[in-house]
Design brief:
Blueprint (H helix, E strand, L loop, with lengths): L13 H24 L6 H8 L3 H7 L12 H12 L7 H10 L9 H13 L1 H28 L10 H25 L6 H13 L8
Helix pairs in contact: 1-2, 1-6, 4-5, 4-7, 6-8, 7-8, 8-9
């Protein structure tokens, strides 16, 4: 399957890139420390020191200690939703969300070890799974709203079909599941496959209607 990368409406400025880099540094420090020592033994002060920031800066990016271990980036989610809303009207819905996600895959290969470490941390600290689930559900609902907005915007009268919201919720849920499956498949086969290939394969099977696998 050929994926056509979407062009974002605007590239992040220097200040925004610095903020993104700081957030990533804090999250990476938190996950690495937790993988080595356990979440319950890692303090905000230790995370901040490892990331080279102050505890005050930590709380500028994460509401609480536990949020730093979940690796949820709200800014990525917003860029994906912006891409969906700006997609051409004649695209297939599944292609729209796939292309919006694929633009965010750059740099993920270098973070494979970090994702594997986070999986290790979550297994050791089940209470974080619930926190991560809440964040994913919120992200899924926001994506469904963006899909609904796009569907309504593609109609001449600006009105969506009666079942547009149900369709959008289903597509958003399927998209989140597809991304999770692709990430897990990629992490389990470190060095064997690249994330983009796993991602494309998952969406290719969805586009085919999930036919029975053949030899």
């Amino acid at each position: 399957m050929h994926i056509v990368p979407k062009t974002r409406t605007s590239a992040p400025g220097l200040r925004e890139r610095k903020k993104q880099a700081t957030r990533r540094a804090i999250a990476e420090a938190a996950v690495r420390l937790a993988a080595e020592h356990g979440v319950e033994h890692v303090t905000v002060e230790a995370i901040s020191e490892a990331a080279g920031v102050s505890p005050r800066t930590f709380f500028n990016y994460f509401p609480s200690h536990d949020d730093a271990f979940v690796l949820i980036d709200d800014e990525v989610g917003e860029r994906i939703r912006e891409s969906v809303r700006g997609a051409p009207a004649d695209r297939a819905p599944l292609d729209v969300v796939r292309d919006a996600l694929v633009t965010e895959l750059d740099g993920f290969e270098s973070r494979q070890e970090l994702w594997a470490l986070q999986s290790k941390v979550l297994k050791r600290s089940p209470h974080l799974i619930h926190r991560g689930l809440q964040a994913h559900v919120a992200d899924e609902r926001a994506l469904a709203v963006a899909i609904t907005d796009w569907l309504q915007g593609t109609r001449p009268d600006g009105e969506g079909a009666p079942d547009a919201r149900l369709f959008a919720r289903l597509l958003a849920a399927v998209t989140q599941t597809a991304l999770r499956v692709a990430l897990e498949h990629w992490c389990e086969r470190a060095g064997e496959i690249v994330l983009a290939d796993a991602f494309q394969e998952v969406f290719a099977q969805l586009a085919q209607g999930l036919p029975r696998p053949t030899e």
